[in-house]
Design goal:
Layout: H1 3-6, E1 10-18, H2 24-32, E2 50-55, E3 59-65, H3 75-86, E4 93-99, H4 106-116, E5 122-127, H5 138-148, E6 153-156, H6 165-174, H7 193-208, E7 218-226, E8 231-239, H8 242-249, H9 254-271, E9 275-283, H10 291-295, E10 297-298, E11 303-304
Parallel strand pairs: 1-3, 1-4, 4-5, 5-6, 8-9
Antiparallel strand pairs: 2-3, 7-8, 10-11
Helix pairs in contact: 7-9
Length: 309
């Protein structure tokens, strides 16, 4: 028998790291097998660490998705990078995600430098191979990263199509220690329903609005009421400028209505019950540099406390 066959149940904690837009949230969803993190084709979609759990008959893997590794030019960005650095500690394995369809640049070197500060073994995952027509082009890219760091494996995948996900999962399981299941078999994420609802609203804003809105956007679930027939949710979308508010509301309220409709569908699909969603849009100038505003927002649960307007 091989060592793998003789081992008992294995479990461990795995952080997913990488540059913005590498596809970390899409990879997390693909590995877990269901949607636990929002996705968008815009950088810094993920703003806080998000856990997703995969349980099989032989293993339980607790994945942590993280914000993209980037330069911290605002107080808000610095807080996001703090969560990235925290994701390096106390892990059994790291996954460094690479956009295989993009040109290698100096910022990729800086991102690897952060991973090198951890002694935790790291798998380099080359994502978006569905966009690479000539697979031979992956070889020189692998060599560039091989020079930068002693990655334990290089795995090509497409988180979007699912190609290579099973192989990656098997490699992760093979490197985890024997251990208990930390969560029940049906547990998928540590995030409360309020967080998930707020994120699904923000996802629709990212999908439907212009480029100048996403980074200036925060969603707070202000009120949540469960009734026998439906769940009533009131949420506020905060932006920094009046012009951004106008974009979100749209002509005669068309845009905010569309955002609400699409978000409601996503929330209903996730929670499996009828939702009544009421959205508001408010301006909070410079909130990304406002310590009081940031402290009044619990980014882990996306639940807001009262903030002076």
């Amino acid at each position: 028998m091989s060592e793998t066959e003789t081992r008992g149940f294995v479990s461990g904690f795995v952080s997913i790291l990488g540059r913005p837009n590498a596809g970390k949230s899409t990879l997390l969803n693909a590995l877990v097998g269901t949607k636990v993190a929002i996705t968008a084709d815009k950088p810094q979609t993920t703003r806080t660490s998000v856990d997703g759990v995969l349980t099989t008959p032989k293993a339980q893997i607790v994945f942590m998705d993280t914000p993209g590794i980037h330069r911290s030019d605002t107080l808000f960005n610095k807080r996001m990078m703090e969560s990235v650095r925290a994701a390096l500690d106390g892990r059994d394995l790291l996954i460094f995600l690479i956009d295989a369809s993009a040109e290698f640049e100096e910022r990729d070197t800086h991102a690897v430098d952060l991973v090198k500060k951890s002694e935790t073994p790291c798998i380099a995952v080359l994502n978006k191979i569905d966009l690479v027509k000539e697979k031979a082009l992956l070889l020189p890219l692998i060599e560039k990263y091989r020079v930068l760091h002693d990655f334990v494996e290089f795995v090509p995948v497409s988180a979007l199509t699912g190609a290579g996900i099973e192989e990656l999962t098997n490699l992760i399981v093979a490197r985890l220690p024997e251990g208990p299941a930390y969560f029940p078999p049906d547990h998928l994420t540590d995030q409360p329903e309020r967080f998930l609802a707020g994120e699904l609203i923000r996802e629709q804003v990212l999908h439907l609005t212009r480029q100048e809105v996403p980074h200036a956007l925060a969603v707070v679930v202000e009120n949540w009421q469960d009734t026998p027939k439906l769940t009533r949710i009131q949420a506020t979308v905060y932006v920094e400028k009046d012009g951004q508010k106008a974009i979100l509301i749209g002509a005669r309220g068309a845009m905010v209505k569309r955002i609400g409709t699409e978000a409601r569908k996503e929330i209903e699909a996730l929670l499996g019950r009828q939702i009544f969603l009421e959205l508001f849009v408010k301006v909070q100038p410079g909130w990304r540099e406002n310590v009081e505003f940031l402290n009044a927002l619990d980014w882990r649960s996306m639940v807001g406390r009262e903030v002076d307007k």
